[in-house]
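Aim 2 progress update. The chain analyzed this quarter is reproduced below.
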Amino acid sequence: MDQDRVRQRDRLHTMVTDQQRTQYRTCDQLADRVRTRARDMSRTAAGKQLNAEAMRQDRNQLQEQIRTMDQEHQRMMEGLSSDQRGFVQNRSRTMEQIQSRINTRLQEMDQELAKDNPDQKRLSNLAREVERDMNRWRNEHRQVGDDLGLSS
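Predicted structure tokens:
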């Protein structure tokens, strides 16, 4: 990191509010819950016999958790100053791309679960991909927190 960026980061660390830290932590906890639910769904789908209705319920809960996490993340980002937002702009774009991939995988899950005989392996793989994408999203989120001093 060049000296100007280090100075800017250090200056931004002093601007952090308690509300921003709270929103950051809440979002991080929500992301972890989403990741855990996706992992559990992958394991369930890989089991001996798929209960499609239970899987649909899990998928609905996963989608709701993702929606809640995204709303909290948006509130956090809206609460940042323009300098703070500018400093993490590239990470924010990356997170939006990851979120888009997660939404695509959820749509694919919907399509698979709409079938009379859903493919367990496909559902397990989709859930595993959501888990991986959530890990990537959470890593970017944590880097935003480090960059802005929200995680301290």
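Residues 81 and 144 are 14 Å apart (CA to CA). The chain is about 85% helix and 0% strand. These observations will guide the mutagenesis experiments scheduled for the next reporting period.
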